[in-house]
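Colleagues,

Please find the record for the three-part complex below.
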Amino acid sequence: MRGFALIAAAALACSAAESVQAQTKEPIRIGVIAEESAIGGTGIVNGAHLAVDAINAAGGVDGRKLEIMQYDDHSSAADAVRAFQRAVSQDKVVAVIGTYISEVALALEPWAARTHVPFITSGAASNEISRHIHEDYDKNKYTFHEYMTSAFIADSICDSVKDLLQRKYSIKSAVVLSEDAAWTTPLDAEYLVCLPKIGVKVLDHIRFSPDTSDFTPLYNKIEGEKPDVIVTGISHTGVQPTVQWAQQQVPIPMIGMSSQATSGTFWKDTNGAAAGIVTFSVAADGANLTAKTQPFINDYIKRFGEAPNYTAYTTHDAVNVLVQAVKRAGSTDGEKLVAALEQTDYVGTIGRVQFYGRDSQFTHAMKYGPEYVTGIMLQWQNAKQVTLWPKASPEAKFSFPAFTQLQKP
Amino acid sequence: MLAVQILIDGFAISALYGLGAVGFTLMFGVSGVLNLAHGATMVVAAVAAWVVAGQLAASPWMAAVAGTAAGVITAFATYFLVVRPIQRSKSVPAAEKEIFVLTGTLLWGIMIQETVAYFYTDNPKSVQPLIAGVMQIGGVRTPINELLIAVICWAVIGLLWLLVHRSKAGKVLLAASINPRALTLLGFELSRVYLSVWAIYGVLAGIAGVLLATFLGASSAQASQLTASAFSIVVLGGLGSVAGSLLAAYVVGYLETLTAYLISPTYRSMPALVLLVIVLYVRPRGLLGRR
Amino acid sequence: MVASRQLWIAFFGLAVLLTLPLWVSAYVLGVLTIAYYFGVFAMSWDLLFGFANEVNFGPTFLIGSGAYAAGLLNAHGVPLWLCLIAGAAAALLGGVVLAVPALRLTGPYFGLSTLVAVLLLQQFIIVFAGSTGGEIGLTMNDILSTEAITNYWYALAFMTVSGAILFALSRSPVGLILQASGQDRFGASALGFNVVKHKLAAFCISAVFSGLAGAMLVFYLGTASVGTVVDVSVGVQVIIAAVLGGRRTIVGAGIGAIFLILAGEALRPLGQLSTFVVSGVALLVILFSVDGLMGLLQRRRDES
């Protein structure tokens, strides 16, 4: 008799527990694919975690917690594709965010199309990503480009050269120096168009293999051509060309896009050789692009011990954009999410995020402009990233190393 | 002044290649081991120097010593954990020992590479030059560090020569590379010989790694490239011949520099590869090889 | 290890693999598909190493030649099946060009020449990036199939047939001669066998299968890139797979490849450390179980 009562009690307890379980909702899973042993990749992972933890602390999405399924793609497109397949079919993610390598993003784009799962790249720059969406919208609409396209980055840099450098110095000639990669092809093409427009003659256009480790011959060649400035497009490399530029005391300043220089660790990595490097980024300490910029930077430094690089900002915003889309759609279904993502109007850490529509040639890329996102130009000075454009604090000015030779206008 | 630039640049990079290659060939000559974890060992030394310079705010010279020590530790780890167990293993047939050591060191090198990348990312690390600044040589502005590297490499090689040819321990090493069995018959402990050669190797690879960090920067992703480069130079010069390795290092170094300056950095490694192919087919024992 | 015992292991394994599509997800089938092509890479390598005793450090020279030849032709509109044949032919040609001079070398020199071949191929592809797609890679116009199950069957069938042929060759008179000459070159030639000719034959067979497998792999993936079919690290994985599985068994190489690829995927949650762990396990196997997985299986069977 007692045994029977015990069993009945146990059964009641179990069913009570089960109904409690049923009331606790399923988490929403987000796949994050990144190159964890690269600076760009760690930024993606860290930015995602920071965003997800904040959202979960605030109650999640309609009572459901967010969960990150993380994958390391070892900078390989093949690994990334396998990770994507696993994320979708095994781990049942509702969307995938990731990669800063354009080659990898381009390899994932058709898989987002095949699996009907939204894919937001938060670091790759190639124009090709959005061009594919524009040319075959119905197939490729699942991909969103939460970073500036190479063409816009180049425009931004040209604008800053005109607004900033040309006001103080005589900048009439330049040499374009980029790594040979998917993202720099449209970047360089735009440099060659926008630089002459601001009165800068392009003396030479050098593309080097991404696994170059000795830049001495390149710097020698450039110095021989005597440009006023070197306009860069580098991402896979950063430490080596910068260190060698400083060691060899190349008298020509470098300005442009150096992805690694956007990271807070760059000064330490180069042992201070970064002094004077001017690079495009999405945000930096003190830039205050929106009300969210500085708090994000402070949180990031508190948690990870160093300032965020550009992919941390964009990934953090991408997670929030996705979450807003889920709320707007009232569902995690792929088709509905795509429609909801297209209606994004989110003020993030880097500006106001909206995506271009079908009629634009940059379908699903982030809108570029003073009311949206323009990026900033920063210069490394005394172990700090100083924002110089578009809005700089009054004391902020250029500071180039002593060996740099710049002419006054 | 392109010619002077090429001359200086080529000299510095060749000296660096030479130091790495000498360690590699010495290891093969004395103990018959082709250590495919060579590049990884250099990278560990480079990153260790960077860590010490950064975390402990040490001077570049302290960092260099720390890096070299790390190279020696890695060399010993390779010997005790991978090479010696295979060499002493009773289940590996004698004819295949070489291949197993090769595969073992290859895997070990990958493990080291991944560990470094895990803790420090695969971003290149650089160490501040031992002596900063530039000087004018023949109208060419050259970082002083570059010249210092060449001097250090040659000084170390010189010390090595003195050690091998003038000291008793060195002569034992030399003898071991010619006829190990005879050496044991004479009562020498081969295991001590092996220990000393791994120690010397560790020092050479460690210094090479640290100098690389001050000159160009080194990253875990370069480990296999560094190994392949040393391997090619050593075969070109003749496996087991130190003089051959030095000669080959200069040939390769200048070929690369000339190509990088006169044609394009993208094609930098091609002429050396083609030369290697030619040498392999025409004179496989290398330029100064014994066999 | 006795041939019949190996065959039993192979049949048993095959039976298991045949039933998988019934109860395993499309994702796992995808991983296995890649593993099967890798299996052919490893088995081809084992034929050369296990039997001719030549360590080919650059199996990806043959794989990559086949893959890129097939890919480039397809990019110009040549139909898929013809591209596959062309890929195998290109790899064969590459193999002959490499082997004729290389086989005159021994030991580390042979190994180095195979490694140099890979580096040259890589440079070639990067330098002519305009037509080959360089580091980004080449996209195929056609792919084998969009269905995971269909791709699985193609890969499994290909691996089974290739494995059977390679296994049969290894046990044939030619194979036995190779094994003999591998262990004792002088003895074999003293008996009148043309050692070099037979090694060349082994090289060519290895080349054809590697090239064909490489071509099929890129038509499965839909892209050909340096990172997937040429890079030295891929070659290293092939060697590890064959040694891990058990040298000179052919079947072992196939098992080693499947194990390696599955282990890599299973360890994906470890993120960065997955390569480290897989290399570590392979190293331990080399140190403690010289005959690889097949050796372990053999021992267990002996003990029981």
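The two ends of chain A are 101 Å apart (CA to CA).

Comments are welcome before we finalize the supplementary table.
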